[in-house]
Amino acid sequence: MKDLGDASFVLGIEILRDRSQGILGLSQKNYIEKILSRYGMESCKPMDTPVAKGDKFSLKQCPKNDLERTSMHDKPYALALGNLLYAQVYIHPDISFIVGVLGRYLSNPDMDHWIVVKRIMRYLKRTKDYMLIYRRSENLEIISYLLRHRHHHHHHHGPPTSPRSRRRHSRRESLPGLSLPPIIRPISTHNRRDSCPDPFPLSPTSRAETPSSFTTSNNATTPTRSQQSQQLVRYESDPVLMPPSSPLESPQPLSPSSYFYDEQHNYVAKAKQDLYDKQSDLAWPFGDLQGIDGDDFRETAYELFFTACRSSPGFGGQSSLTFYSKHENNNGVGGGAGGAPVSQSSRVKRALGLKMMRSTLDQRISAAESPAMSPLMSPLVSPVAGGSSPKSRLVKPRKQMSMADVMRVQMQVTEQSDNRLRKTLMRTLVGQLGRQAETIILPLELLRHLKPSEFNNFQEYHLWQKRQLKMIEAGLLLYPSIPVEKTNQFAMNLREIIKNGVEQPLDTGRNSDTMRTFSNSVLSLSMRNPDGGAPTNVCHWANGYPVNVHLYIPLLQSIFDLKEETSILDEVDEMLDLMKKTWTSLGINRSIHNVCFAWVLFQKYVETGQVEHDLLCASHAMLNEVASDAKKEKDPKYVEILKSVLSSLKDWGEKRLLAYQEYFQVEAAGEIENLLPVVLLAHKILGDVAPSGEGSEGKGGDRVDDYIRSSMKNAFENALQAANAKYTECQTKKEISEVMFQLAQEIEDLANKERQSYSPVLKKWHPTAAAVAALTLNNCYGFVLKQYLTEMMTTETSETIIVLQRAKKLEDILVQMVVEDSVDCEDGGKTVVTEMVPFEVDSTIVNILKRWMDASMQRGNYCFQKAKEHENWNPKSKSEPYAKSVVELMNLAKIIVQEFFLLPVPITEDLVQELATGLQNLFKEYTMFVAACGLKENYVPNLPPLTRCNRNSKFHKFWKIATPCRVTCEDPHMYGIYEARHPHACTSRGTQRLYIRINTLHYLLQHIPSLDKSLSLSKGVVPSIRHSFKNIQTPLTNSSKSTSYFETANSSILAACQHLSEVASYRLIFFDSNSFLYETLYAGDVASARIQPGLTVLKHNLKLMTAILTERARAQAMKEIMKACFDAFLMVLLAGGTSRMFNESDYIMIQEDFENLKAVFINCGEGLVGDEAVEKESEVVEGVIALMGLSTGELMETLTNIVLSDEANGVIGHKLPMPPTTRKWSRTDPNTILRVLCYRNDKTANHYLKRTFSIAKRR
Questions:
Q1: CB distance 259 to 269 below 8 Å
Q2: Where is this region: Disordered (predicted)?
Q3: What is the DSSP letter of 1246?
Q4: What predicted TM-score, i.e. pTM, was given to this entire model?
Q5: Which of 373, 532, 831, 1018 has the fewest CB atoms nearer than 10 Å to its CB?
């Protein structure tokens, strides 16, 4: 076996270690990347959540027939879900819920389920770098317990506890269970203040016993969640942890009632009361004291409260212990001796605008102990009483409750604990009746005087002792009011003793050295003088922040009824007066009390589900007092406490106000009216106490403006998130446009809801609330619209225009909303309107149309470029003798015109002209491409040098008859014009392709009128009131409205047809038929090389030409062929080269041949060329033939006379200047006469040419 070291990968899980920090991390990044690669989602868009808000799944989504199931045949749904399940099990429990939901549809999934699977993969891509972290801990601390039934071995008779009850159950009432991660509370530091005379700040009117200025709410009390949940009995110890020693100590079955009585008729609340709900989003502002829970603070607060009030009526003082309810008259049960009933109403409630309760505390208790409630309501026997006789189990007549009883019940303290406290105080204050509470170190006295025998079991005593030690540690060591040096010996001793006391109980006997050292250390630390002088009589063990506030908050929380959590007891005045007695011990003053009281009211409003708006109004009333205090109090510690409380309150409120459309439904929009003043006041106070440049700034109207803008943005983002979810499912650009269209509708609905429901409430603080909301929605949608237009730049023009038109409608609605809401403003809403970013729909549509036209022209250019690269000029078919590319081009042009008139915009004349100009340019470019086939001069032979005929030349002896034409048609049977009877056609492939080019141009000429008609006669074209996108090359004027849009293109096509016809004709004659009509004609001897064979070939070529060319192109082509034939005949006569010579007698045969050539075009042209045209074109040739019929002398004389008449300087000797070659043959042209003489087989001509022009003799 070989040691390979620490494992780094196990089953696809990467293991990362940091031993220096004691951290071990597990990562599945590689596995997730492998999954994404497997399903082709490496480049997918990451998502922030695995499931979208509002997604719902049901069996109705599953396919119901085979046709619907086919869409999922190629989707590996089960495999993908299995891959996600593996990631969920090990590293990603955050996808457990949605993977479990999708697993229900494995047998019959739908495309909706597959889309969610892909969304989970997008979420994994976002979180693939996250790891599961395990951290090493030196001290194993129990953080939480698993709640179990109290008597797991007995049948539980009571109803099951609610989740809220379980959450409020004490950790000492449960068995150890699963460990859960701790919830970290916000930590802050605060200050204490000296006492203040009044326990509660009252307005001047209330102090004078006049009606309060606060308005009492008439809202009915709403049942709270605590009324619907079963609560648990709170004991000092848990019998499950230590079995009861006697039957009397066994707990009785629980009653369905919320309260029950023990043997002394003291009622105890069943629910555990904590300082704050750790799961609430309302931040706890007073810091977190680790190791001390809410029960510890509550029990210690009651002990401190009772000690401070011990001399008050009902707490053991000289006055009566009887408590008189405010709702009972003097003749009632509560009329005990020595007491007087209090007033019928609470001045505190009047000041806070709170209503009185419906029933008295005694009435609620009487209802709780009524026999009708439950037969299980047997009284419990106090362990302290110790009585076990049957009499002790009988229900005694209920006595009237004292304030001590009220506070014990409200603080949820058992009579057993209360009796132990009373016992301790009696032992401590023997002979010291006048001793002040602030001179008593209560936890120390309790530890001195209470022994394990006074508890149900030893474990209960140990838990109680640890609570006292933790309170001493917190008050003297961790958070002392007077700082303690680390080197202080008393602090070191105390710290060591407390550490040992946590592990095992301390020996608190009189002779214990540990207890003696402990007492000395506690006394020394608590009696220190803040100035460093001699010790004082005042004990500073509970007045350090935040211990003092943690102890004071449970006292303030006790004013709320345990059954109706949103109601404050009518005895609140007396309770607050008694709480004031603790201020000296806790270092609380009026200002701190006001801050804490405002916090408690607001916290109760939040924890009870925000159902009692009177609590919120009471918080606002208290904040008014806090605002008054803040102007006078400048102590840094108080300011820090104030800022912490107000920041927590403000953050909670602003979280909802910044998204009020999400937190407040339409029917609850009025709740904003209650919350907003509280948040604004807290914001104002923070602004007053915060240093310059710190804290919150801006007026109330500005804050409301921020709330409106933020809420609108949040609502818009929610709508956009839903749209994005649909966007990821869209497969086409058209579906995306539909999403944008629906988004505009949702924004319109959102604006209407804001105007009708929320803006009327907010208008009290912001005069243009609806206008600001409309402005925000306008700018948000405009930003998304801009992104949409960027993505849809070149596609789906019609859908984009529809979206823009819908956006224009939305913009008009929002602008109208701004104008209507700003009508009473000084500037009429101009300031708000100027902030609105216009959608610029009209100009955007114009730009889109421009891009559409450019894109359409690019499509045409692409078709044109494709033709340039691939066009071979073969006919499309026998019945369609033109190029394929012209059909594609013309079809594309027609499609563009059709799409143009289908655009959902008004069509103007300028738009039509712009489109026509683009198409015309495209046709012109294509025409130039078709006509690019060379020039006719490329096929005309060069003129040979002039030589004079040598009569003795033997050249004719070496003349060889030209071979037949080797050029044939590519497919002689394609056109069906010549079979075996037409063997002499010699039209080459290139010439036939020229014919196809000519047909192609005529196809354009034929279809352009229909295109022009579509543009000219389409309905709905309106006169344009704007300029076109760019300078139009051929704008239509008033005098040319009937002119075709494609007039220039038509002219270009006709010129190209003329050019192609010339090139094709000269190629046919001088290239294809060269051997018949040029090379062999009259070669050697005129009589033996007549034109008849060439005419035969010519006739067949003409038939092939007429078969290939369309009817409209034949006449022009026939005329050009005739011209080419006549030019070829002239070239034979005047530039035939050394192979030709003519005698005067050849005139008759030449004239006869030319007449036969003319007859071919007159007779075989099928009427394409008229007689007059033939005669006109033949005039030049006939003039040259006439010259050949003249005698040599006549020719010499005529030439000499013409040259001499043209020569201005005269002639030197016998020499005449050489007439220039102009190729403009005529019988009067000297060069033409000279050439006739050069080819005259005559001695006289030979002499004349040698002597007069020095022309060389033929070789």
A1: yes
A2: 151-233, 238-257, 381-400
A3: H
A4: 0.59
A5: 532
